[in-house]
Amino acid sequence: MSSPHAPLLAALKGDRCSPPPLWLMRQAGRYLPEYRKVRSGVASFLDLCLTPALASEVTLQPLRRFPLDAAIVFSDILVVPYALGQKVAFVEGEGPKLEAVKDGAAIAKLTGENAASRLAPVYETVERVVAELPASVPLIGFCGAPWTVATYMVEGAGSKDQAAPRGLAYREPETFQHLIDLLVETSAAYLIGQVEAGCRVLQIFDSWAGSLPEDEFERWCIAPTRAIVDRVKAKAPDIPIIGFPRGSGPLAERYASKTAIDAIGCDTSLPVGWIRSALQTRLPVQGNLDPVLLAAGGPRFEARVNWILETLGEGPFIFNLGHGILPETPIEHVEKLVALVKNAPA
Ligand SMILES: Cc1c2[nH]c(c1CCC(=O)O)Cc1[nH]c(c(CCC(=O)O)c1C)Cc1[nH]c(c(CCC(=O)O)c1C)Cc1[nH]c(c(C)c1CCC(=O)O)C2
């Protein structure tokens, strides 16, 4: 169902678009006063994700302010552990807290049998959003990559170095494999569900891909991502999938060639010249403005936006941040970014 008038879909097919399509990771959220208003009316962040009337409203909020080229479903990567029966809570000022699964016994208690019904509200959100969006603005569905989701499940929270999941993977690879396999199956079904509800693009967030050495990266990032891509492509061959292996450095090249993703999200640490020569020559690229620089604004911000546009604008390119937008980002800086990208010289 691709529309020739949707710049994001054109770029994902490999077209050079001038100006390039633009959307922002975490574009719905706390930097918007209208988001904070909706958020203050619900008891928990998970309730917000699982209440379609509210989740669809906050998905659309950034689109009402800025002429972005995509919407992204308002949800979280941790709805999947919730769907598997793990206790998940978001504590104000502290981030996610989960009842950690530290061993094989705890992992064996997880089950996908209620996943479809627990995730059904997200599909309803998708239906509601798609009904409101013009054909030029595709809705992006997403999930966390198994490795990244497993880090939160095993650690029970966010962590600096992912030591608990890495340790479990080294000591008990078969136990850890069991968790990853469950996440592959559930996440693939979840992505397919989002496509069936109306999403036209998918993104797989592997936020902690950078904490693994190369052999572990092959096993816990590349292989499970490839397994998800294969499952989704078997059902929805025309839906482009963006992979985002944050922090993977030069391993991003191997990720791009082995996972069968259609486009790669590039984090802030990747040099733009390298993105162009090593990645953009083989697939469309997305990124990679530093979200801290967007929050800071000023001449260095503008110079960097232009540098990215000049370096990557010649090939298939989607302008985005290198990681999620920060809550302290002034709205005027986002407006400035939109103006710079939309008025980029052809
Ligand atoms: C690792 C990860 C998570 N969630 C996500 C990732 C991968 C991308 C990344 O690395 O940032 C992805 C995510 N989380 C959220 C979205 C919504 C769609 C969007 O606008 O991009 C998406 C795509 C909403 C959210 N997810 C969360 C919020 C803030 C909660 C609130 O409003 O109280 C939002 C808007 C909470 C969350 N959720 C997560 C953490 C670590 C936190 C706490 C930190 C924080 O507060 O920013 C897990």
How would you briefly describe this protein structure?
With 346 residues, this protein is α/β, with parallel strands linked by helices. It has helices at 7-12, 33-40, 45-49, 52-65, 79-83, 104-108, 115-132, 146-155, 163-171, 173-197, 214-235, 251-258, 272-280, 291-296, 299-312, 331-342, and strands at residues 71-72, 88-91, 95-98, 139-144, 201-206, 241-245, 263-265, 285-289, 317-321.
Structure description:
The protein has 346 residues and is of the alpha/beta class. The protein is 51% helix and 12% strand. α9 packs across α10 (173-197). It has a single domain, classed as TIM Barrel (Alpha-Beta Barrel), CATH 3.20.20.210. It starts with 6 loop residues before the first helix and ends with a helix. The chain has helices at residues 7-12, 33-40, 45-49, 52-65, 79-83, 104-108, 115-132, 146-155, 163-171, 173-197, 214-235, 251-258, 272-280, 291-296, 299-312, 331-342, and strands at 71-72, 88-91, 95-98, 139-144, 201-206, 241-245, 263-265, 285-289, 317-321. A seven-stranded parallel beta sheet has the order 1-4-5-6-7-8-9. The chain is globular and about 60 Å long. The protein has 16 helices and nine strands. The protein binds coproporphyrinogen III. Coproporphyrinogen III binds at residues 25-30, 39, 45, 72, 74, 76-78, 90, 95-96, 142, 144, 158, 205, 207, 324.
